C-alpha cells in the first residue's frame, strides 16, 4: 500500500500537476503486515496533511475494510479486493479480485496494489492513465517495470470491461 500510495501521489502531483500530500503508517512487519497510505489532493494549497473523511477507500483485506470504512464519506467510493473482502458494509462497492488477477495474469500477487491503482484511476479519474504509467516507470523497482506497467493496464481494462458493483440492499 505504501508503494501504491507513493506511485499515485507522484502521478497526481508530478504528472497531473495537482497539489498532493502523501502520508503512511505501517506495523513493525517488513511485508505482509497492516499498512495504510493516505493522500490529500487539491488544486489549491493543502493546509493539513491528513484526510479528515475519505473520498476513496481501497481495501485489499477484510481488516482494512472493517477498520477504515467508517472514515469514508457517505458518497465516497469504496473499492475492495472481492477475493479477500467478503463482509461488505451497507454501501455501494466496486469489487474486483485484484490478488487473483495478479496471480493469474502476471504470476505474482505482489502487483495487486498496482492493478488496483489502475482501477482507481479509471473509476475516479483522480489520476490520468498517462500520469500513472509514467510514475510507475520511475518508481517500480529495477527489473519489475514491465509487470507493474502491465498491472496498470489490467486495472484500467477491468473497469472498461464493466464495473463489478454491489449496491446496498
Describe, in plain words, how this protein is organized in 3D.
The protein is an alpha/beta fold. The chain has a single domain, classed as Pyruvate-ferredoxin Oxidoreductase, domain 3 (3-Layer(aba) Sandwich), CATH 3.40.920.10. The chain has six helices and six strands; from the N terminus they run H-E-E-E-H-E-E-H-H-H-H-E. The strands form two sheets. Strands 3-4-5-6 form a four-stranded mixed sheet, sandwiched between helices. The chain has a two-stranded antiparallel sheet with strand order 1-2. Helix 1 crosses helix 5 and helix 5 runs antiparallel to helix 6. The longest helix has 17 residues. It is globular and about 40 Å long. The model has no long low-confidence stretch (mean pLDDT 91).
Question: Over all CA atoms, what is the radius of gyration?
Answer: 15 Å
Tell me the strand percentage band: 15-25%
The end-to-end span amounts to 30 Å
What coarse outline follows from CA principal-axis ratios?
globular
| Integer count of domains | 1
Strand order of the largest sheet: 3-4-5-6
The name of the CATH architecture is 3-Layer(aba) Sandwich
Using the coordinates above, name the CATH class. Answer: Alpha Beta
Report on the biggest sheet: 4 strands, mixed
Amino acid at each position: 500500500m505504501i508503494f501504491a500510495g507513493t506511485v499515485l501521489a507522484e502521478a497526481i502531483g508530478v504528472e497531473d500537476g495537482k497539489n498532493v500530500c502523501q502520508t503512511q503508517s505501517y506495523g513493525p512487519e517488513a511485508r505482509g503486515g497492516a499498512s495504510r497510505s493516505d493522500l490529500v489532493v487539491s488544486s489549491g494549497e493543502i493546509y493539513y496533511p491528513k484526510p479528515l473523511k475519505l473520498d476513496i477507500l481501497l481495501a485489499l483485506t477484510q481488516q482494512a475494510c472493517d477498520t477504515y470504512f467508517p472514515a469514508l464519506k457517505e458518497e465516497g467510493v469504496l473499492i475492495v479486493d472481492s477475493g479477500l473482502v467478503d463482509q461488505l458494509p451497507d454501501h455501494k462497492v466496486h469489487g474486483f479480485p485484484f490478488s487473483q488477477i495478479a496471480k493469474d495474469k502476471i504470476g505474482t500477487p505482489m502487483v495487486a496494489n498496482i492493478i488496483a491503482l489502475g482501477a482507481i484511476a479509471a473509476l475516479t479519474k483522480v489520476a490520468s492513465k498517462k500520469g500513472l504509467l509514467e510514475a510507475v516507470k520511475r518508481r517500480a523497482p529495477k527489473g519489475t517495470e514491465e509487470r507493474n506497467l502491465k498491472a496498470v493496464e489490467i486495472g484500467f481494462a477491468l473497469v472498461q470491461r464493466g464495473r463489478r458493483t454491489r449496491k446496498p440492499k
